Amino acid sequence: MKTKILLLLLAGLPAALAVAQTEPPARERGATASQEEPEEVVVRGRRIGELRAEVEDARERAYELFNDLNSNDEFDVYCHNESRSGTNVPQVVCRAQFENRISAAAAREYLSGLLSACHGGRFTQDCMFSNADAGAISRAQGMESQLPGKREQMTDEIFRVARENDEFAQAIIDWYEASQQYDAARKRRKD
To answer: d(Cα 182, Cα 108) in Å, to the nearest integer?
Structure first.
């Protein structure tokens, strides 16, 4: 049986060679084939969710490095999901420790000012929305006035760490590039 199959294959070989000799050269066949068959287009891209995840990963990496390398724990940055009104989609909010400390102190000062202005803690609408709360607001704003100076110090610290640590500098660049790709993809999606 094997011999018969082999003989049939060998018998067909001269015919196949004869057909191959009568066919036009490959470059002519290619020209004809390309005119008849449409070209195949391959599109390679990434989903917007993948790009968003890359941005989040790059951000986390940069903050992790900065938290390890900076000289002041008040500059450590931590992120958390925060609810937004009007949507069920939480927003990632990242804040330095000094911002949390100053915000908490400002809230304490405001409440303390309201307590003294509202006669021992009776928070009525008349008291809360009168000129009596002006002192409380002023005390809170006094605490919040520290923020610009601290932010400037933190910016200086970021630049210092980036100059001294190539890995952190690269993490910032990676975060920036991932953000640019994500923003461009979102823009294309809207167009």
So the answer is: 40
Of 143, 144, 135, nearest in space to 113 by CA? 135
33 burial (CB, 10 Å; 0-12 / 13-18 / 19+) is exposed
- Token code pair at residue 98: 């000094």
Strands (E), the chain: 77-82, 91-96
**How many Cβ atoms sit within 10 Å of the Cβ of residue 58?**
20
What does the block give as tokens for 82?
Answer: 């925060």
Exposed, middle or buried by CB within 10 Å (0-12, 13-18, 19+), for 171? buried
* Reported pTM: 0.67
The Cβ of residue 163 has, within 10 Å, a number of other Cβ atoms equal to: 10
Count of residues for the chain? Answer: 191
- From 71, 62, 14, select the one nearest 172 (Cα to Cα): 62
Which backbone phi and psi does 76 adopt, to 5 degrees? -60, 135
Residue 149's DSSP bridge partners are: none
Model confidence pLDDT, tens digit, residues 44-96: 667 898 999 999 999 999 999 999 999 999 999 999 999 888 888 889 999 99
